[in-house]
Amino acid sequence: MQRRKVRFEATTPGKVGMYLCGPTVYSDAHLGHAKKEVAFDVIRRYLTHRGYSVRYVSNITDVGHLQNDADEGEDKIARRAALEKLEPMEVAEKYYWSFMDDMGRLGVQRPSIQPRATGHITEQIELIQELIARGHAYEAGGSVYFDVRSWPEYGKLSGRKLDDQEEGTREAVRGEKQDPRDFALWKNAEAGHIMRWNSPWGEGFPGWHIECSAMSLKYLGENFDIHGGGLDLEFPHHEAEIAQAEAAGHGFARYWMHNNMLTIGNEKMSKSKGNFTTLKDLFERVDPQVIRFLLVGSHYRSITEMSEEAFVSAQNGYRRLHDALNEIERRLPTAPHREDVLSAKVARHVQAFEDAMSDDFNTPRAVAALFNLTSDVNAALAAGEVGKGALTQAQAAYRELGGQVLGLFAAGMAIGAADDTALVSTLMDVVLEARQHYRLSKQYAQSDALRGKLAEVGVTVEDTKDGARWKR
Ligand SMILES: Nc1ncnc2c1ncn2[C@@H]1O[C@H](COP(=O)(O)OP(=O)(O)OP(=O)(O)O)[C@@H](O)[C@H]1O
Ligand SMILES: [Zn+2]
């Protein structure tokens, strides 16, 4: 709101109420969506790490999000339902779970509360009634609009002045609005519109912005701490959220945070531009942990430019950290009990990490601290034995800061082919031994079948006078 960094003070000491505008569930999530979810997940995790008890509310939009911001066009979910020949609620359900699966693989923690717009029609209607009663909204033709001219503070978040906006707005979009800048709180449902509810103004459906005001107030109360979302939501969505809540007499969010966009070829990745990579496609070839590492490598307020090279360098960088942690854990059980100079260095890098994160969640600087830690750890490990205390401390730094805060180093990850060389070689020894056993006992059908299966995965076996050899 102030367009600068300010000191964070929780409304209730020790507690943080956070609201993040969630997805409109009508298609599979792409990498741009992941940037937003991971950015706010890290913020939540860091606040938790600092001892706050965080209530994290993130909504699911399953009604009311129309094709364009001027309150016109089809509902995104209903349009998809027609395309896929599904019920609108089937579409919402399908893509909701798709979203949750993808975010789960990226290590995004589930919200404390994940309210759906269709489950809160009553709350939205009540808020609209309050706005009408206070003279900040009016009914027209079964729809209700927010009266922007009645609320001089409209524009305070995005810094837009009403007069600037007027120039940019076409008369054509005015329709039944008293002012083209007014926005829909409730829309009259025309014949054939499937998603519809009874209201004091006839059958209709809520506007997109009202759900977030109604649901954040319901679950976080007035003056809750942090409201987040993508920078593209600042106007009109967040501006509208503030106006709806405050004009109805409620205190609203105290800190506003917006993530910048993920771009590809310097253009925002987006569904409508068609320049997107779905997470599901990406997971086929890049480990979700590496994707997450790549995302935390840039600041939430910065643009993240995507490229193949970026994946490769993320993969290498992440492997470097991961290898150091593995080596620490391998050596820990036999490490000697003694003081070690590494201890003080670890403490310094931990402090650098905390300082970076306490400065507007500066994840690239925090990651740099982990790399500096890794250089010192590797140097110490290469020089010989390292004291148990220092190793334990270093392990805790990776697990707590990299693991708990950044959401990395999850168990059971596959980090890519190069790490598997030794394993593959050992497994091939086992397979060739089994084949040799078949041959010696004249079970040629079995030994040929094994060779055939290996050929299918691109491994050829040659019998030489020194025994079987394999190559890819
Ligand atoms: N490229 C991106 N980088 C960062 N955040 C994004 C990106 N694309 C979408 N988001 C975030 O996800 C939210 C939901 O996005 P939305 O469903 O509108 O996706 P989209 O691909 O931009 O779709 P469309 O092009 O149809 O608007 C956005 O409000 C935004 O905050
Ligand atoms: Zn919202």
What does this structure look like?
The protein is α/β, with parallel strands linked by helices and 472 residues long. It has 3 domains: 15-268, HUPs (Rossmann fold); 318-409, Four Helix Bundle (Hemerythrin (Met), subunit A) (Up-down Bundle), CATH 1.20.120; 422-471, no CATH class. The chain is 47% helix and 12% strand. It has 15 helices and 13 strands. The chain has a 4-stranded parallel beta sheet with strand order 2-1-7-8, with helices on both faces. A 4-stranded antiparallel beta sheet has the order 3-4-5-6. Strand 9 (262-264) and strand 10 (267-268) form a beta hairpin. Helix 14 runs antiparallel to helix 15 (444-456). The longest helix has 24 residues, at 308-331. The model has no long low-confidence stretch (mean pLDDT 92). Adenosine-5'-triphosphate (ATP) binds next to helix 1 and strand 7.
Indicate the structural class.
alpha/beta
Number of E-state strands:
13
Mean pLDDT value: 92
* Percent of residues in β-strands: 5-15%
Oligomer: single chain
Bound molecules: adenosine-5'-triphosphate, zinc ion
N to C succession of SSEs: EHEHHHEEHEEHEHEEEHHEHHHHHHEE
Summarize the structure.
It contains 15 helices and 13 strands.
Give the SSE layout.
Layout: E1 15-20, H1 31-49, E2 53-58, H2 76-84, H3 88-105, H4 121-133, E3 137-140, E4 143-146, H5 162-168, E5 183-188, E6 204-206, H6 208-220, E7 226-230, H7 234-247, E8 255-259, E9 262-264, E10 267-268, H8 279-285, H9 288-296, E11 304-306, H10 308-331, H11 342-358, H12 363-383, H13 388-405, H14 421-440, H15 444-456, E12 460-464, E13 467-471
Helix pairs in contact: 2-3, 4-6, 6-7, 9-10, 10-12, 10-13, 11-12, 11-13, 12-13, 14-15
Adenosine-5'-triphosphate (ATP) is lined by residues 23-24, 32-33, 35-36, 229-230, 232-233, 259, 261-262, 268-272.
Binding site for ATP: 271
Motif ('HIGH' region): 23-33
Domain Cysteinyl-tRNA synthetase class Ia DALR: 352-423
